[in-house]
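In the previous chapter we treated chains in isolation. Here, by contrast, the input contains two separate entities that must be folded as one system, with a combined length of 844 residues.
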Amino acid sequence: MVGSRVLSLYSRSPSSVSITLYIVMFVVYACAQGHFVATPYGLSVLLNNSISLAVGATSLTFVILTGGFDLSLAGTVALTNTILSVAGFNGVGGAIEALVVVCGVGAIIGTVNGLLVAYYKLQSIAVTLGTMIMTSGIALFMLNAPGGNVPDSIAYGLTGLLGPVPVAIIILVPFTAAMAVLLNYTRFGIGVFAIGQDRTAARASGVNVEWTEFRAYLTAGVVAGLSGYLVSAETGTGDPRFDASFLLLAFAAVAIGGTSFRGGRGTVVGSVVGAGLLELIQKTLFAIGVSSFFTGMFEGALMILAVLVGSLGSLMAARRSAAS
Amino acid sequence: MDEVLQIRNLAKAFGATQALKNISFDIARGEARALLGENGAGKSTCVKILNGLVRPDSGTIRLSGREYRPTGLSDAQRAGVSTAFQELSLIPDLSVAVNLAMPTLPTNGLNLIRFDEVRRRAERTLASYNIFDIDPASLVSSLTLSDKQRLEIIRALSRAPTLLILDEPTAALTDVGWVYERVRALKAEGRAVLFITHRLKEARDLCERATVLRNGEIAGTVDLREASDNELFRLMIGRSMGTAFPDRPDKVKPTNEDQHDDIVLSVEGLRSGTFGPATLSVRQGEIVGVAALEGQGQRALFNALAGIERITAGEVRVRGQRVKLKSPAVAKKHGISFVPEERKEEGLFFGLLTRANISISNIGHVRRWGLVARNAEIEGISGVSGAVDLHLRYHDFPVDALSGGNQQKALIARALFAGPRCLLMFDPTRGVDVGTKQAIYSVIRKAASEGTGILLYSTELRELTALSDRCVVIYGNRIVGERRSESLKEEELLERMHHGHAESAKEEVQGGREPRAKSL
C-alpha cells in the first residue's frame, strides 16, 4: 500500500525519482569522501563538472517536451566553445559580450531548427542532426585542432567561489528557477506541454502550435549556447571536435529526470538533477575505488531504472482502471 | 439581419469522393438546428469546414452577415464559432482549470500565469453551470469520459459563441438535462446552435427544424414537430441509388437452427474493453451483417475477433474448437482474416509493391529457395487478385500509386490470400467508386458461396440488406437485435440502430409486421 503510494508520487511528480536518488547517492558519496564534500570547495568541484551538462539537458528538455528531438546541442556547444577560445574576449566586459555572442549563435541555430521543424514540418531528428553536423563543421573550420584560450574572466570567474558560495550555485539555481517558471507559469510553457501531449487537442484549444514549437527550438538553441559557455569555462580551452557523448549524457540526464521522450511530461528540475546525478555517480564510484570502466554500466542501469520507476505508477493505474 | 449562419452552395471533394455538394441552409437567430444523416453523409465535413479545419472547394458562408472564411480553429473561435467536439479537444495532463482557460490564460505584469485567477475563474464557470463535483485542480486525464464530455461542452459554451456547434455531445453523457437548459438559454439570447446527433429524440427536444444530409447533399429540411421518425429515416436513406447487387444465390439453408456443425465462428458472452457481452455465430458460407451507428462498439467487436484488442471475457470457438485470440497472428492461424476500416493506417504498407502487400499475409507460400521470388509471388496471388478483379499490371506498382478502389481490392485480396474460413470485413466499400463496390460485392458473394463465413459491417444499410443472410444490430456496446434477411428492411434497421432495445416495443407497430427472428 505504502509502496503503491510512493510509486504514484513518482509517476505524478517525475523529478522526484531523480531527487530521491540524488540524495541517496550524495550520502554514499559523502561517506566515501569524508567532510571534504560539504565544504564550499568540494561542492564547487562537484557542480563545476555537472553544470554544463545540466544546462545542456535543460536545452533538450524544451524540445523533448514538444515531442521532438534536438541533436544540435552537440554542434552548438562545439561552435560556441570554439568561438570563445579564438575570439579573444577580455575582462568582465568581454565575458558579458561573449555571453551575448554565444546565446546569439544558439538563437540562430534554434531559429533554423524551429523554422524547419515547426513551419516546414520536417522531422526534428533529421533537421537537428543536419544542423549539428553543419555547426561542428564550422567549428572545425575556425579551429582545426584543440587549442586556443578561453578568457580567464570566464574560465576562472565562473568556476571559483564568491565568498563562501560556489559561483556555479549562483548560476545554476536562478537559471533552473527561471527555466521552470518559463515552462510552468507562461502561456508558452503550457503550450509546450499541450502540443507534446496532444497536438490536435492543443490546436482545438486555441494553442498556436507552430509558433509554440518554434519558440521551443529557439529557447533550446539559446540555452544550448549558454551550455557551451559553461563548458568553455570548465575546460578553459577550445575543442572543435567536441565530445558527442556529452549529447548522449544530456539525453540520459533528461530521461533520469523523468521527462518522457514521448513528449508532454517532464520537468526542468528533473533534467538538472539528472545531470548532477550522472556526475555524482562517476565521482562516487571513483571515490569508493571502482574502476572507471564500470561507470557507463552504472549510468546506463540507473537510466533504465529511472525510466522504469517513472512508468510503474502509470502502468499500475492502467491496470487498475482496466480492472474496474 | 436575422440569419446568424448562412451557407450557400458549399462543396468539398476528397479525391474522387464528393463529400459535400451544393449545401445551402440558414440558421436564424435563436434557432437550434439539428443536422441529421447516416454515417458518411457529410455531417462531419460540415463541422470541419465551419471550424476552419477543412477549406471548402466552393461556396460561401456568412456569419452574422459577414463573410466567414475561417483559417483554423482559433480563427473560428475569434469569429464567434465554438464547437464541442465528439472527439474531445481537452489536453489530458493539464488541470481542468487550465483547460477551461485555454488559450488565453490570465497573466500578471511579468507575463506569468496567475494560477489563482485561473482556478477562481474555473470555479466560477463550473458553478455557473451548476457543476460542483469536478475539482478544477484535478487533471483531465483523471476524469470519467462523461465528465470530460461535460467539460468539453462547458468550454465551448463559456466562450460565449454566436454559433455553438454540438458535435454529438451526448454520446457519453449520463445526464443530458443540463445541456438542454444551456441550449435553451443560448437560444433565448439570440444565438444559434447547430446540433449534430444520431438520436432523434434529442433532436426533437432541442430543435425546431432538422436539416438532413444524404451522400453529401441536402435531402431536405423539415419541421421536427410535423415530421415522423419514419419520414426522417426515409430522408436519411433515400431511394435506391441504382447500385446493382449480385443476386442472392438460392442455396439451401439449414432448416434446423440447432444444428451447429457448420458454424465457423461463434462467440459467447464476449467482452472486450467496454464492449459486450455479445453472443454471435457465423455459419459456413453465411454472410452476417452488422448494423450500427458510429461508435456503438462494432469496432471493438471486430478488433477483438481479429486478435487486435484483448478479449476480457467470454468464449470464442472456431469450428467448434475453443480458441484464444491473443494476437492477429493467432487469429490468422485459426483462419480468421480481417479487412480493416482504415486501409491507409491499419492495412496497406505504402511504399511496398502491390504484390508484396497482397502476399504479406502468407509470405511463406511465395518462396523459392527460402527467398521471396517475384514469379512465385505473382503466381501465388494470381488467384486472389483475379477474384477481386485487380489487374495483373498493377502488381509491380507501389500500392500508394493505385487508386483508392484498387487499394481496397488489394487489401481484400490479401485477406483472401490467407485462405480464411471466416472473413471479417469492416466497412469494405468505404470511399470507393461504384465500380469497385460492385467488384467487392461479387467477392463477398463468391467467398461465401465457397464456404467462407463472413461478418460484414457497413455504414451503408443497402449493402447489409442486399448482401447479408442475417443481420445483427449493435447499440450501446451490445447486440440488441437480429433479423433474417427475408425480413430485412432498411427503415426498420435504422429505427433499431437509433433507439437500441429501449424502444423495441415500437417495432411491431411501425414495422407493421411481425419480426420472424426473435430479438435478443
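Chain B has a mean pLDDT of 83. The longest strand of chain B covers residues 3-14. Compare these points with the single-chain example from earlier in the chapter.
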